[in-house]
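Data card: per-record layout.
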Amino acid sequence: MQKNALSKAHSLSLEYLRRHFPFTANRFVSSPYWQRTNENDIAAELVTFLDMADFVIVNVMVFDREGADTDGPIGYDPVVKIKGQSVDIGGQWFPDFDEARLHALDYVLDIFEEEQKVTT
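The structure for this 120-residue chain is written out next.
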């Protein structure tokens, strides 16, 4: 699987999707999940679109078990299931929700794009 700049970004733009994942972009834009609200940050809508194709991304909250100063989460662990099967994407958690989601999208988009190439 190729690694690209998506995991280093803070958002995912439609332009980036079109440039790196053209088959996915075409399907996404023609779907009811594309809202045309913000072309500079389509990550949330894209996660919903992929979920409908059974490419599920969920961010699980990570808590400090050693009694940190906060009761809230200290980070997020992205969990991916594709066609009902759990996919190991590295076992890494992230302090930021968006960063965790983009890390998972980086993996899922590569796989989804290849599937689109085969089925198109």
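Known properties of this structure: Residues 32 and 49 are 8 Å apart (CA to CA). Helices lie at 14-20, 22-29, 43-52, 97-119.

See the next section for split statistics.
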